[in-house]
Amino acid sequence: MGLFDRFRRPPSGGPAAMRARLEGAMAKRRLRGWNPPLENINTLVASGGPRLLARSRELVVTNGYAANACEAFASNLVGDGIKPSSLIGDADLRDRVQRLWLAWTDEADADGLTDFYGLQAMVAREMFVAGECFVRLRPRRADDGLLVPLQLQLLQSEMLPFEKTEVLPSGNRIRCGVEFDAIGRRVAYHFRRRHPGDSTDQGSVIPETVRAPAADVLHIYRPIDAGQIRGLPHVAPAMVRLFLLDQYDDAELDRKKTAAMFAGFITKTAPEEPLMGEVEAGLDGTAIASLEPGTMQVLLPGEDVKFSSPADVGGGYEAFQYRTLLAVSASLGLPYHLVTGDVRQANYSSLRAELVEFRRRIGQLQHGVIVHQLCRAVWRRWLETAVLSGALDLDDPVAARPVQWIPPRWDWVDPLKDIQAQVLAMEAGITSRRKVIEATGYDVEDVDRENAADAQRVDRLGLRYRTSPGETQGARATPAQLPDAGSDGSTGAGPGTHGTSEQE
């Protein structure tokens, strides 16, 4: 029976059959050379972080596509700022808190170069280039003249050494510059005192690093894997393609430039005879003939001219560039037209479909990273400092913490259709007016106060506009009273017909 057992169908179950279904785990001829190491992301960041960071910064500075993508990423992520809308019930107290916050934002930067919302844009750029950014909460003295004695200092990723990994006598562990306690909580950051690449900041410092408590440091980064300690540059998946494409473009441009320098080549049978036109002897003895516009030159016997015809880039150059930049855009998670500025093949439908998906991703970063890691922590420390310094009179600072952060508004391709859709949604009760206004990046209470002030000023000055605050606008407006029938028997607007409150 052993001979017939060989022709029997093998069993359908078992570990062997399960392994056969996992094609990605097969080790046959096609995948024999694919043997990636099983390394944790922290090991990869610790070993390759410094070089990856240096290459990323150089790429964003020297490569036009990378620089444009960085600005597009930052402008869409934070725009002109993710702003707070306090949820304090007391209207007067809420107004005082909001006004004090707005005034403090101008003093928030420890370097004095921008405001709090400008710092948000700098953090967004650092996330694209370095994958992370550190913000130190710097308390100030009462005699510094600040409205709230608190400022923010931005530190680049290089300020926290990747190679600093050790076990302290207290039992705490330092991993990639971050100190953890026995249960895995972040307790401190060990920053360099000077940037390792800044040659203008001279002087020996002992010790080289300084310990900053974790309560005073905000580590802003997007965690990709569970347990990730340091951030990865957002541009990392596209770095190799961008670098090689830049080299290819430079080589192609240099080749065309070199070929265009040679107008033609003159051949002759007797080397000692002069060439056509003026002859200038080069340093190596080679004669160069210049051509003037409109020259009619009679060649001597034995001379012949062969004009240069440099090879073109070919018809596949555009297709190659397009496909490569598509892959770069997909690696960056940015729409193609935001990376390249090319909208030749785009239309309204394709642009909107692309932007909807992109803005869904951006919204995830706004709420999960910028708001959660940066804005919430700054708001909480700012409230505590304002109360302790006497800038705010609050009985319970914790009760004033609830706040809603409003991201910048999205500008659509056709805003008229979107506004009409929002109006219909409000009329149907699908959404509220507050949600619609906050989607534009404004606070509904600020808008209401401005509308009320505008209406009072219009009434006081006796002004009349096509649309006044508080009035129904557009062709959907219906007159309060239908006109009576005319003397000739004609009727005005009947039931179901809409008049208009506008006078042309």
TrEMBL record:
Region (Disordered): 460-504
Biological process per Gene Ontology, one example term: virion assembly
Single annotated GO MF: structural molecule activity
InterPro entries on file: Phage_lambda_portal (IPR006429)
Protein name as catalogued: Phage portal protein
Provenance organism: Paracoccus contaminans
